[in-house]
Amino acid sequence: MEHKQFVQGECLYHNSLSKEQDVENWKLEGQAKISFDDERLTLENELDPETHGDNAHWVFWCPNDFPDKIMIQWDFYPIQEPGLCMMFFAAKGINGEDLFSPSLPKRTGKYPEYHSGSINALHLSYFRHKWPDERAFRTCNLRKSHGFHLVAQGADPLPPVEDAQSPYHLKLVKYEGIVQFSINDLTVLEWEDDGKQFGPIHESGKIGIRQMAPMKASYSNLAVYEAKLEK
């Protein structure tokens, strides 16, 4: 398959994620431990999933709104599994509301609130080592919401924690109906939304990090750029 080629444009946002002040305006939904080991944002669950089930998972939102035609890049360090890591993007209310509008129901980190609740979003799960079947056959999954629509899958080259040679550089492009995801410059997933089968194409919105307990991981060098499509 020949993938689309994108060029990195103007930087819209950059955050080293190296200290507490870097995320002081971010919004946590659910409960998580937030630290900065080795000058990297390190995230893990606050609640025991054996006791609290789905209440142990959470989402951590960047407060900025981003337009369409963007390239999101970050460095990822898996530390402890089992678990799952995900990036939400193009997220806003189902009627176009700001994601943090007080008119929307409160969200607490439970996944159905994000895929079948009051928001629209695209969500990419890229380190899916939570359940035995996910660890036995690893994929990256792209879903479109509102609704729990699995729209694309790709093979996931990320190894188990014990074999990881971090960091892994992740790049996610959202360009009109096109979503493209790569790890260390290897394209593992590309999908084009027709704007019909699963509703209109999502455009602008917020981005956020999600983990499923008991995953522990670190993040650094988050940047969002304009994306330009090579003709």
What does this protein structure show overall?
This protein is mostly beta strands and 231 residues long. It is 6% helix and 50% strand. The chain has helices at 49-52, 112-115, 132-136; strands at residues 6-15, 27-29, 32-35, 41-45, 58-61, 70-80, 83-93, 119-129, 139-145, 149-155, 168-175, 178-183, 186-192, 206-212, 216-229. The model has no long low-confidence stretch (mean pLDDT 96).
Query: Averaging pLDDT over every residue, what do you get?
Result: 96
Regions with little confidence, pLDDT below 50 for 5+ residues = none
Name the overall outline: globular
Residues in β-strands, percent:
over 45%
Q: How many β-strand stretches?
A: 15
Summed up, the helix count is 3
Please sum up the structure shown.
It is built from 3 helices and 15 strands. The protein is mainly beta and 231 residues long.
Keywords summarizing the entry:
231 residues; mainly beta; 7-stranded antiparallel beta sheet; 3 helices; 15 strands; globular
Topology (SSEs and partners):
Layout: E1 6-15, E2 27-29, E3 32-35, E4 41-45, H1 49-52, E5 58-61, E6 70-80, E7 83-93, H2 112-115, E8 119-129, H3 132-136, E9 139-145, E10 149-155, E11 168-175, E12 178-183, E13 186-192, E14 206-212, E15 216-229
Antiparallel strand pairs: 1-15, 2-5, 3-4, 4-15, 5-14, 6-11, 6-15, 7-8, 7-14, 8-9, 9-10, 11-12, 12-13
